[in-house]
Amino acid sequence: MKRGFKGLLLLVLAILSVATLGAQAVAEKQEIKVLILDMFEVGENKGDFAGEFQHFYEAYLDGAESYLVSKMPLTLYVNEQGVAGCIAGMGKAQAASSLTAILSDPRFDCTNTYILVSGCSGMSPERGTLGDVVWANELVDFDLGHGWMESDKSSKDDGTFLRSEGYDRPGYIKLNKALAQWAYDLTSDVALSDDSAAAAYRATYGPEEALEKPAVRIGVSLTGDNYWHGPGSSARADEITAAYGAGTYMVTQMEDNAFGVVAMNYDLLDRLLVCRDVVNYDQPSSGQTVRESLGASSGAFSMGMKNGFAVSRVVVDEIIANWDTYKTRIPSAN
User: Fold this and answer.
1) Which of 110, 104, 136, 113 is nearest to 123 (CA)?
2) How far is CA 206 from the centre of its chain?
3) Three-class SS of residue 171?
4) Domains of the chain, with CATH numbers?
5) Are 61 and 55 in contact (CB under 8 A)?
6) Residue 122 near residue 282, CB atoms below 8 Å
7) CA angle, 247 as apex, 193 and 295 as ends, to 5°?
8) 172, 174, 306, 312 — which has fewest CB within 10 A?
9) Residues linked to residue 67 through DSSP beta bridges, in sequence order
10) What's the CA gap between 310 and 215, in Å, rounded?
């Protein structure tokens, strides 16, 4: 009886030990409260000419714990307050791979993570101006669907794009509009930088919107792996967003739908925020060719990096300061 009891006791202790180790492993997961995704950096992460990541790194992640994620290579930095950030890469393939690798890494607890995409973009001169910052409320993919050249149109009534419902899930993504509106309301009065070189470049464009001072706006973000440029492509972008019944596109970029699909896959779409700063117009002025416009400096790059960071950090700081509330209750516009 004593031997049997002793054996049973040892078995119970072994089970409890395994359970305790398992509980410790779960408890040791690094909780990520806000995940900041930028697409590139110009040089180093701090101290030199700033690309998309540097301002965030210097403010939140300098000296933070770093993790090598997958073999991409992808380095994720996570500070003690639960703010994480990385350079996710440019284009849809890199963007989707990076976010998937992070969200599936067993070292991190991303159950309640807010994903913040912050990066540069283009804009039609009829929609806004250099230095604007736009919160996205819808994402549209420029590439998915059936398309043809303008010269191949069979009649004047034909467009150049045919929507295919099989592509709808990645092609047209409705973000949490209440969250996007909350972010816009929170940041609409943030003071934005301007630049004399950007002002001079603006003056070469005709539309009144192109001549305005930088402001915070809200609208559709259009994703295309191809860095398209020109009024014809802009018109096609309008055609594509109309085919989905989406709003007017405000900014153009190369990653947002990829991030949106991954966020859907991990049940985090309601916590996805997309903030894009405008560093170029998506078409030339009347005195330029497309190639000249692509090669020109708008004077807005550094200004855009500063403005995108200034707006994004307000949201990051608000979420972290009120994490006990926002962990389980997603903020929304009043």
Assistant:
1) 136
2) 30
3) helix
4) 30-326 (3.40.50.1580)
5) no
6) yes
7) 50
8) 174
9) 76
10) 12
What are 262's two structure tokens? 């991954």
Distance CA 334, CA 326 (A): 15
Tokens encoding 114:
């807010």
SS3 291: helix
Could you give phi then psi for residue 117, rounded to 5 degrees? Answer: -90, 125
pLDDT of residue 22: 45
DSSP three-state, residue 32? coil
CA 262 to chain centroid, in Å, comes to 12
Strand partners, 120: 277
- Chain position carrying tokens 């860095």: 227
Which SS3 state, helix, strand or coil, does residue 5 take?
A: helix
Q: Residue 21 has what pLDDT?
A: 40
State the angle between helix axes of 301-321 and 177-187 in degrees (0 to 180), rounded to the nearest 10. Answer: 110
Element (H, E) at 47: none
Residue with tokens 């992070």: 102
> Cβ–Cβ contacts within 10 Å for residue 245, how many?
9
Q: Which pLDDT does position 151 carry in this prediction?
A: 79
Beta strands 272-281 and 114-123: pairing type?
A: parallel
3-state SS class at 226:
coil
Q: How far apart are CA 262 and CA 212, in angstroms?
A: 35
Q: Are 264 and 169 in contact (CB under 8 A)?
A: yes
In the numeric block, the tokens 């903020």 are attached to: 331
Structure tokens at 66: 């770093």
Q: Which residues of the chain have pLDDT under 70?
A: 1-27, 157
- pLDDT attached to residue 4: 53
Nearest CA among 38, 149, 22 for reference residue 86? 38
> Phi, psi (5° rounding) for residue 118?
-135, 115
CA of 137: how far to CAs of 18, 197, 222, in Å? 46, 30, 11
Positive or negative CA dihedral for 127, 128, 131, 135? negative
Dist CA 315 CA 333 (whole Å): 13
Integer Cα distance of 153 and 151 in angstroms: 6
The per-residue pLDDT for 70 is 83
pTM: 0.90
Q: What is the pLDDT of residue 233?
A: 93
